[in-house]
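Most newcomers find our protein records easier to grasp once they have seen one. To make this concrete, we reproduce a full record directly below:

===
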Amino acid sequence: MKRTLTCMLTLSLTAAAVSTAHAETTLRMSHFWPGASSINKNAFEAWAEAVEEDSNGSLTIENYPSQTLSQADETYDAVVNGIADIGITAQGYTNGRFPLSQIVELPGVANESAEQGACVLQMLYDDGQIADEYDDTHVLFMFTTGPGYIHTRDTDVQKPSDLEGLRIRRPTAVAGNILKNMGAEPTGMPAPEIYTSMQRGVLDGVSLPWEGMKTFRLNELTEYHTQVPFYTLIFVATMSQDKYDSLSPEQQKAIDENSGMKWAKKAGKVFAADDKAGKRQAEEAGHTIRVIDNPLEDSAWEKPLKAGIDKYLGDLESRGLDQARDVYYAALEARKSCSAE
């Protein structure tokens, strides 16, 4: 009888310990956006608050912005390796790792807004078109910037040949290849490093959406903006699979209820609002803004952009990704039901 009571007490204490562990779980979230940015505050901190509330306080999210926990190009691996529990980063910062996902970055796929791009990318993931690329983590939601444009310090870019020889920061190899087609000299670097590089004259310009111009204060360093939508930068918010599996069913439910299309669209709306604010900054500063709304139908811009599309899809097929064009067409189809509200 005494032994039975002892066993029961041990089991009871063990259960209590497990319950306490689940009741006070802290998740470390890493990303590269500045802590003061509206993206951090209105998307990532808002997501963390929603998860904490839906878990009845049993989950706490520790937010590490500005690359304080992991560098932008190492964040996905930081999640895989357990350095961060949650990571938010651009897939293109790990070149070649998410080739099918980056199809969404091609010209014409998501040329309306960040809301449209987020919807297209999340739909491709939900439909299984690109899901295999994320087998090593637990994806929370996906999203994109709005269309990316060309912004320069002192060159008025009106046609592709005006980019000849200019050192332009490119966000990913996909956008870099298209910039090269247009005569520019693309240079890769994470967004937080751009401001200093432009100050030092290392760069003549950047390729970014209006949101990035605002977030990283680059309207301070540029005078000319060519609003030609030639790419969209994609992002993933993802979680360590081991960490997710260690949570209680109730905690997992709180995560699940704040995943998928619901938060893809919310993040898209935050980016879209910042796009408007970023452009307004440039307008109020009296900058020159050139607008090319449909570059794939423009005689000057059409050739280098279509060449970039064909080269990227062809490169994927040469790597054995025979489904590349199917994914591309699926993205174009998804675009129809993802038009900006």
Summary: The two ends are 69 Å apart (CA to CA). The mean pLDDT is 92.
